[in-house]
């Protein structure tokens, strides 16, 4: 059978937010790209399948990046002494303007996709730029990479310099429709996602047009929410009809609800009323802890979201984040939750390692379906990890080894194999 095989090794995966399961010298059976489950011994009926014996290595689900800006990959690690709005104006918008030149986009996106293919990320949700031709180029490259992704051509028709701002709501609508028609039926693993950049850069007229496009093409939505105090004040001025930031999206039915999938990144300053609407509308939160630290945005109330039964995953948010490593985002999420508990509200306990690992796998994976675990019926995305470069005199369990691997940046050298939807990438 195609995409059917067995992996052997030290297997670690989430079953729920509260439970991280490990099986020493266990077996994962994969049938037609999906997990049949994890076993302590191999049933006779599976012994004819090809066996990948990874011996003492760790085998974990692939990691999910719910929020990454592909055009910003080239200048990550720069200008991170600025806050959000100044950083956008001085660095991000000028850099993204370069993607009108397809030769520049070719060079930049080749670097981006190559790095992501080698990383621990198996699925990702991507902001491109507002340029249609460059966005299609990015989607072509991601499709060839074997990764699974959602990619959005950015919409923005106000409060940005002319090289990056679209001429009008009508032009933005036209370019978005042309993009969607061009890629229709073109890919197996790469899907479009509607991408209004954020409320300050999208006029009410364009929001209304995007609502129609969303319904016509049956698209999920991604954007930014409640990231920075200055941004929030600007939204109050630009959308006086809204009760809070998220309500400005909800006014145009671009905030989940009615089975419409929606990701909102950051949500640092989401208050009770906004959180309640997010829960009601099944909005997914993309938590980007390093970005929020680098741009002085603040500490997101992740425990509040989890207590409200809101789906939460992790995002690298390159380029305000410095690395594509979701292992790093995982450990930063723990640190940020500690600071929130210590400095903001001690009623909300910090994340444990097993909870943060859940966010990096099943939490983000839910946006893609049954993804992020090795339970029966889940799409088989997996990483094989070697911690040989991280020696210790201690006798460690697989879960303890995994925790060290995450904190000590073992993914820089230790990813030995990578599977996406049952296909071995390397």
Walk me through what this model shows.
36% of the residues lie in helices and 22% in strands. With 426 residues, it is an alpha/beta fold. The protein is globular.
Task: Briefly characterize the structure.
This protein has 426 residues and is an alpha/beta fold. The chain has helices at residues 84-97, 102-118, 132-145, 169-183, 204-217, 229-238, 245-250, 272-281, 289-294, 302-307, 326-344, 353-365, 398-407, and strands at residues 5-14, 20-31, 34-39, 50-61, 63-69, 121-127, 148-152, 154-155, 190-192, 195-196, 221-225, 262-266, 284-287, 312-314, 382-385, 415-420, 423-424.
Pick out the low-confidence regions.
none
Order of adjacent strands in the largest pleated sheet: 3-2-1-4-15-16-17
Percent in strands: 15-25%
User: What is the number of beta strands?
Assistant: 17
Structural class: alpha/beta
Q: What is the residue-mean pLDDT, rounded to a whole number?
A: 97
Q: What is the straight-line distance between the termini? A: 20 Å
Order of helices and strands: EEEEEHHEHEEHEEHEHHEHEHHEHHEHEE
Q: Radius of gyration from the CA trace? A: 21 Å
Count of helical stretches: 13
What's the shape? globular
Biggest pleated-sheet summary:
7 strands, mixed
**Residues in helix, %:** 25-40%
Blueprint (SSEs and pairs):
Layout: E1 5-14, E2 20-31, E3 34-39, E4 50-61, E5 63-69, H1 84-97, H2 102-118, E6 121-127, H3 132-145, E7 148-152, E8 154-155, H4 169-183, E9 190-192, E10 195-196, H5 204-217, E11 221-225, H6 229-238, H7 245-250, E12 262-266, H8 272-281, E13 284-287, H9 289-294, H10 302-307, E14 312-314, H11 326-344, H12 353-365, E15 382-385, H13 398-407, E16 415-420, E17 423-424
Parallel strand pairs: 1-4, 5-6, 6-7, 7-9, 8-10, 11-12, 12-13, 13-14
Antiparallel strand pairs: 1-2, 2-3, 4-15, 15-16, 16-17
Helix pairs in contact: 2-3, 3-4, 4-5, 11-12
């Amino acid at each position: 059978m195609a995409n059917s095989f067995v992996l052997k090794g030290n297997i670690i995966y989430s079953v729920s937010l509260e439970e991280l399961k490990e099986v020493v010298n266990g077996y994962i059976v994969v049938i037609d790209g999906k997990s049949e489950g994890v076993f302590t011994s191999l049933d006779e009926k599976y012994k004819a399948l090809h066996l990948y014996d990874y011996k003492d290595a760790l085998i974990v689900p692939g990691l999910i990046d719910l929020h990454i800006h592909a055009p910003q990959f080239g200048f990550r690690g720069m200008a991170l002494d600025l806050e959000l709005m100044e950083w956008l104006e001085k660095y991000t918008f000028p850099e993204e303007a370069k993607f009108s030149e397809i030769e520049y986009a070719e060079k930049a996106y080749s670097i981006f996709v190559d790095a992501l293919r080698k990383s621990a990320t198996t699925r990702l949700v991507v902001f491109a730029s507002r340029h249609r031709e460059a966005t299609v180029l990015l989607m072509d490259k991601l499709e060839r990479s074997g990764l699974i992704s959602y990619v959005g051509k950015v919409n923005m028709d106000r409060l940005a310099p002319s090289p990056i701002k679209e001429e009008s709501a009508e032009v933005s609508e036209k370019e978005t429709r042309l993009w969607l028609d061009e890629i229709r039926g073109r890919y197996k693993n790469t899907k479009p996602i509607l991408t209004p950049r954020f409320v300050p850069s999208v006029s009410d007229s364009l929001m209304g047009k995007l609502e129609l496009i969303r319904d016509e093409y049956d698209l999920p939505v991604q954007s930014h929410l409640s990231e920075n105090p200055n941004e929030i004040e600007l939204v109050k001025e630009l959308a006086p009809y809204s009760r809070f930031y998220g309500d400005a999206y909800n006014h145009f039915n671009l905030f989940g609800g009615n089975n419409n999938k929606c990701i909102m990144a950051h949500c640092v300053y989401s208050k009770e009323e906004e959180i309640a609407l997010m829960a009601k509308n099944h909005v997914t939160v993309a938590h980007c802890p390093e970005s929020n630290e680098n741009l002085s945005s603040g500490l997101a109330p992740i425990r509040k979201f989890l207590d409200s039964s809101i789906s939460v995953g992790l995002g690298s948010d390159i380029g305000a984040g410095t690395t594509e490593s979701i292992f790093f985002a995982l450990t930063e999420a723990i640190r940020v939750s500690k600071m929130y508990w210590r400095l903001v509200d001690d009623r909300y306990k910090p994340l444990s390692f097993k909870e943060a690992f859940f966010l990096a796998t099943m939490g983000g994976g839910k946006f893609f379906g049954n993804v992020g675990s090795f339970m029966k019926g889940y799409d088989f995305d997996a990483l094989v990890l070697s911690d040989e470069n991280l020696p210790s005199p201690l006798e460690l369990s697989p879960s303890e080894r995994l925790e060290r691997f995450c904190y000590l940046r073992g993914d820089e050298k230790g990813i030995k194999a990578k599977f996406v939807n049952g296909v071995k990438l390397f």
